[in-house]
Amino acid sequence: MALLSVDELCVHYGKIEALHDVSLTVDEGQVVALIGANGAGKSSLLKAISGIVGVASGSIRFRDQVLTDCAPHEIVRHGVVQVPEGRRIFSRLTVQENLDMGAFLRRDHAEVRRDFERAFAMFPRLRERRNQVAGTLSGGEQQMLAMARALLSKPQLLLLDEPSMGLAPILVDLVFDSIEAIRKDGVTILLVEQNAFVALQIADIGYVLETGSIVLRESGPALLENDAVKRAYLG
Amino acid sequence: MEATADKSATPPAGGDLAGAPRARPGSGDGGMLGGLRKVKRFTFVDVVLWLLRIGVAFVVIGGAIGTLIKGRYEASQWVDFVVFGLTIGGVYALLALGYTMVYGILRQINFAHGDTMMAGAFSAYFAANYFKRNGMLESDAVIAMVVTVLVAMIVCTLVALTVERICYRPFRHVRSLAPLICAIGASFFIQHTFRAMYGSTVRSFPDTSWLNGDVSLLGGSMPVTQVLVIGSAAAAMLVLYLVVHKTRMGKAMRAVSEDRDAAAMMGIDINRVIVFTFTLGASMAGIGGILYMLVYKQVYFFMGFLPGIKAFTAAVLGGIGNIPGAMFGGIFLGLVESVGPALFLDGLGVPAPYQLKDAIAFTVLIMVLVFRPEGLLGERRAKRA
Ligand SMILES: Nc1ncnc2c1ncn2[C@@H]1O[C@H](COP(=O)(O)OP(=O)(O)OP(=O)(O)O)[C@@H](O)[C@H]1O
Ligand SMILES: [Mg+2]
User: Fold this and answer.
1) In this structure, are residues B168 and B277 in contact, taking their beta carbons and an 8 Å threshold?
2) What is the mean pLDDT of each run of 10 residues along chain A (235 residues)?
3) Which residues of chain A approach chain B closer than 8 Å at the C-beta?
4) For a substitution probing ligand 1, which of A10, A11, A42 has the most ligand atoms within 8 Å of its CB?
5) Alpha helices in chain A, H assignment, sequence order
6) How large is the greatest C-alpha to C-alpha distance in chain A, in angstroms?
7) Is A129 in the pocket of ligand 1 (CB under 6 A)?
8) In CATH, what number does B77-343 get?
């Protein structure tokens, strides 16, 4: 059974239809990439999964839990955690406090301490900047913080919305290395990217979203070879 | 469930009272320089704004010089003014915290906050009277006062949470003026409920031996009440600061006030944080209400109105949404109101300067809103991402 299954999902903003009958599944342990042009509705899909935007019709299921009627914080409790587009770190809180917010729901304090250590091992820069106000971090450090913060929620499914946005190539590599590492830790990943080339390289499955509808679903390598995809997204 | 709307439509991040960027012809953020550069296009509004600036500068500087030349007040009187300013400023600060914290979370002004304080003060009055009658207010003053304070805090919290539930929660997902108007309605409702129940007579906090008299402090002597009020206000603010910065819910509150959706994505229950915020603000209002009652010795149904608006002024002064700003704004307003009449108005020959202390307070509000809507400590809008 799929870990996450989205069925015929529609999302509207007033009269604008952002998603139309979108269906998608993510199996446990996979990295699934979702690519598409600006405004295709990628972020809307992730927001719908996280409960940040309401759903007009269709369903979202995670294991045997229907997420469609859950509040955002309940969805996190079920193990679905998002690193939102543009990072959205709490810029007036310190790095440590941001990470504390990631662990907000957790009561297993010993385990949380271990996860802090693991996050710092993955992103050593954050340890050095622990007591710094997060708004003063560089863009790359902010992306690391956003990912570390989400990891502290102990996700089973991690939703990443354009983690490479605005980063220099060397940092893009670093971010994607950590995505691989996160996957090795057993976390399933749904990855939204403009940078289709890097995303499809690590993806087991890729979906292409165009103006609110899924138009293609293939394995990552197959999409990399697909002519239409090459023309539209790989330049 | 709502089908298409945003589950948690977030108000825009930039959170100034003035809302959308306002067109301020001519004298924009550049202040004096901006004004000079555009000297050729001096509009009517510019003229008015400059007259306002010059007028206030004249009153402040001219009045102060006049007063000092006259030398009507001795040093000890100035000290008294300052101490009273700190006293009433502490109360304003406690109330301002409620406005500012709720604004930080909801981007809405809780107009019923002053009346929440009144409800707390009223119940504290009844509690204190009860202890007066059974003698505990004298014999076990500490226990009696602790219980009195708790009663005020609990009543304030109940009122505030009811207001939140009725006036704010239904409008969480829509951006409109409805909550504000609803809260104004709640404000009148609370006032008139108390009037109906307890009439419009002015009552006063029961007399106690320990509240009268002076204490000698720093070589001078000060009324016990003022020492008590300043000390309690400072202690309450310290506790609040620690709660907001050190506790899990306090941090969540700051996270929500910065980015509600991102906080929700971390598993923070927004409704719980809102309830927490109203509770904190109301607790401060409960303490503030008792202190206000100790200063002015008055309890009546309308008592929340003026301090409420003053505290709102203080919150705006410090930059609404900014917690240290509210503390600063409260103290600042208290000082201006207390020192101002003697310092600025007496020198100009105003016959009864103290009658004008409220006018001074509201001049401050208007000046801040016109010239620095982000508050004295507030960040400039441009800084926000
Ligand atoms: N809050 C909103 N209100 C109204 N329309 C919205 C809202 N959010 C998104 N939209 C619209 O929905 C459509 C999909 O937006 P979405 O953000 O999901 O696209 P995206 O694929 O993530 O784009 P990008 O690559 O630029 O991030 C767009 O047309 C957008 O204008
Ligand atoms: Mg997007």
Assistant:
1) no
2) 91 92 93 92 94 92 91 94 93 94 92 92 91 91 93 94 89 90 93 89 92 89 84 75
3) 11-14, 50-57, 69, 71-73, 76-77, 81-82, 84, 88-93, 97, 100-102, 104-105, 135, 149, 153
4) A42
5) 42-50, 72-77, 95-102, 109-122, 124-128, 139-151, 169-184, 196-202, 220-225, 227-229
6) 50
7) no
8) 1.10.3470
Beta-carbon contacts of A131 under 8 Å, excluding residues fewer than 6 positions away, are: A94, A95, A96
Count CB neighbours of A135 within 10 A: 16
User: What is the rounded end-to-end Cα distance, in angstroms, of chain B?
Assistant: 33
User: Using 50, 70 and 90 to split pLDDT, how confident is the model at B320?
Assistant: confident
Under 8 Å between Cβ of A42 and A192: yes
Comparing CA positions, the residue from B9, B18, B15 lying closest to residue B172 is B9
Residues 6+ apart with CB under 8 A from B251: A93, A97, A100, A101, B245
Chain B residue with CA closest to A154: the answer is B266
In this structure, the strands spanning A213-219 and A57-62 are unpaired
Q: Which DSSP state fits A193?
A: E
* Residue B378 binned pLDDT confidence (cut-offs 50, 70, 90): low
Characterize the bridge pairing of strands A205-210 and A31-36.
parallel
- Reported residue count of chain B is 385
Quote the radius of gyration of chain B (alpha carbons, Å): 22
Beta strand A16-26 with A4-13: parallel, antiparallel or unpaired? antiparallel
User: What are the tokens at B125?
Assistant: 């009055």
Tokens 């622990």 correspond to A130
ipTM for this prediction: 0.92
Side chain identity at A218, as an amino acid letter? E
Model pTM?
Answer: 0.87
Q: Is the CB of A36 under 6 A from ligand 1?
A: yes
Domain-wise residue ranges, chain B: 77-343
Domains plus CATH for chain A? Answer: 4-79+155-233 (3.40.50.300), 91-154 (no CATH)
Angle (CA) A102-A108-A111 rounded to 5° is 80
Chain B nearest-CA residue for A49? B265
Q: Between β-strands A65-66 and A157-161, what pairing exists: parallel, antiparallel or unpaired?
A: unpaired
DSSP state of B107: S
pLDDT, tens only, B100-146: 999 999 888 899 999 999 999 999 999 998 988 888 887 888 888 89
**CA–CA separation, A90 vs A165, rounded Å?**
18
Tokens of B283: 């607790």
